[in-house]
Backbone:
């Protein structure tokens, strides 16, 4: 049970860091809304890179250290009714087991299936939070118009199952419109974020004590004039430490510990128009 929670949370961890941007003034109005342009059927194609370092211990095992590196093709595919599917495909992953002395013990390469969330709105909102755990934080947008220098909080909740109960970790991404700049030869609004998702209550029947949080920072680039996400860089730290209840201890004899440090980066490569039906 506790092990399954770990796997769910590993798949949910994500976010961003800073990058160099040339100063450039955007000609659009200062209160231009941050909204995707989904007015026609087309696909936005992105490169995607991920690096994760995980330290964990489950059921009295010694600390396990693993590094994961992944590349994929990220896409935002505009569909009918002003909605889009967001996903990763052609995912290639390399998992490296690391010994206490820092030497590499084992390297395992594998391909992963398609990951996709359907029905993203032009404002970056999703109906199915379970499917959108990754993407609701990878391509966030302010829920209201922002002027340069203004800040807004975007609420986030990440679901997971504890027995028959659905539990949410709640928090927010604080987005600030910090500057205008050039990225991938496009004039972009530059957003910076502070991520804090740490509000959670796990029922006493599952855990005596616990500490769970995801925190991080990010820098995002959005083409306001054309309504296109151009890229982003993210760094996050996710921690989960749980001391199981007496009931849970019948199956899991010790506490669980995991720290996951992740870096994500994506960049716009091209825009493909969909063929007419």
Residues:
């Amino acid at each position: 049970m506790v092990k399954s929670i770990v796997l769910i949370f590993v798949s949910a961890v994500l976010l961003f860091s800073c990058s160099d941007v040339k100063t450039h003034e955007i000609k659009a109005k200062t209160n231009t809304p941050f909204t995707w342009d989904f007015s026609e059927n087309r696909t936005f194609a992105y490169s995607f890179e991920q690096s994760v370092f995980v330290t964990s211990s489950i059921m009295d095992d010694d600390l396990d250290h693993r590094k994961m590196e992944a590349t994929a093709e990220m896409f935002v595919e505009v569909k009918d009714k002003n909605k889009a599917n967001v996903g990763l495909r052609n995912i290639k992953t390399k998992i490296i087991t690391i010994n206490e002395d820092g030497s590499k013990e084992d390297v395992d390469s594998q391909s992963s299936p398609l990951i996709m969330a359907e029905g993203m709105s032009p404002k970056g909102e999703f109906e199915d939070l379970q499917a959108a755990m990754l993407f609701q934080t990878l391509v966030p947008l302010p829920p209201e118009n922002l002027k340069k220098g203004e800040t807004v909080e975007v609420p986030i909740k990440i679901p997971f199952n504890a027995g028959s109960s659905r539990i949410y970790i709640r928090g927010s991404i604080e987005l600030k419109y910090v500057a205008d700049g050039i990225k991938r030869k496009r004039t972009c609004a530059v957003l910076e974020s502070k991520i804090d998702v740490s509000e959670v209550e796990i029922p006493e029947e599952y855990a005596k004590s616990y500490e769970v949080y995801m925190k991080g920072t990010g820098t995002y680039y959005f083409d306001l004039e054309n309504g296109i996400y151009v890229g982003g860089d993210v760094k996050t730290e996710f921690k989960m430490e749980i001391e199981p209840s007496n009931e849970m201890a019948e199956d899991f004899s010790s506490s669980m510990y995991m720290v996951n440090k992740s870096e994500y980066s994506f960049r716009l490569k091209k825009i493909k128009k969909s063929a007419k039906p």
